[in-house]
Specification:
This protein is of the alpha/beta class and 211 residues long. The chain has ten helices and six strands.
Length: 211
């Protein structure tokens, strides 16, 4: 894959480059500030971009603002956003732009190479990848989830991370049929149409993010 990296921390930036190259990916551009992100994405049109949330010049939300702008200019551009801490408003705002091809991970997750690689590939393929800690904090604060059973909340949490039905079944030690039933119940309780199988996970996640 062709990848653009936006990260001002030199050590993390170089570590990302080495990690990505080691598994066969190509880093086509590296930037260190928010204003540089969109021009780099417009020029290179990468398969996926890895962006830090807080970048110069203000070290506030420059990476997030650039990500949102990039999605408007390049619809569907896959973006994997990295953050030092769980910042609920950032995750909700980013996913509110449409969760297809979006990832939000804590920086500590980069050290788990297989998990990071899986998230990167999932996002590049148009899927969703949310850090389990982010999902946990988001779900604990959302009233619409009060109607869900504990098992349904577990299933929705794994859906939010971007996992497919077979993986959810394996994780929870239940059958795929049970997973499908739980998803149907979740969609019904959240008043979501069950017919759009391609977007139902996105719709379910966005329902509680935007509540």
């Amino acid at each position: 894959m062709r990848i653009v990296i936006a990260e001002d921390n030199v050590l993390l930036r170089e570590g990302l480059i080495l990690l990505l190259e080691d598994v066969g990916h190509e880093t086509v551009a590296v930037v260190g500030s928010g204003p540089e992100i969109v021009p780099a994405l417009l020029e290179h049109r990468p398969d996926v971009a890895v962006l830090d949330v807080r970048l110069p010049p203000g070290f506030r939300d420059e990476g997030l603002r650039a990500a949102i702008e990039a999605r408007k200019l390049i619809p569907g551009q896959p973006l994997l956003v990295l953050s030092q801490y769980v910042e609920e408003s950032y995750a909700a705002e980013l996913l509110g732009q449409g969760a297809s091809g979006i990832g939000y991970l804590l920086k500590d997750r980069v050290g788990h190479i297989e998990e990071f690689q899986d998230a990167l590939e999932r996002v590049a393929a148009g899927g969703t990848a949310l850090d389990p800690e982010v999902v946990s904090q988001l779900m604990s604060r959302r009233d619409p989830l009060d109607a869900l059973s504990p098992r349904e909340r577990e299933v929705l949490g794994l859906m939010a991370q971007g996992l497919d039905n077979p993986t959810i079944a394996t994780t929870l030690f239940i059958t795929e049929r049970s997973v499908s039933k739980h998803i149907g119940s979740i969609l019904a309780k959240l008043n979501l149409p069950p017919s759009d199988s391609g977007n139902r996970r996105v719709l379910a996640v966005l329902t509680y993010l935007n509540a």
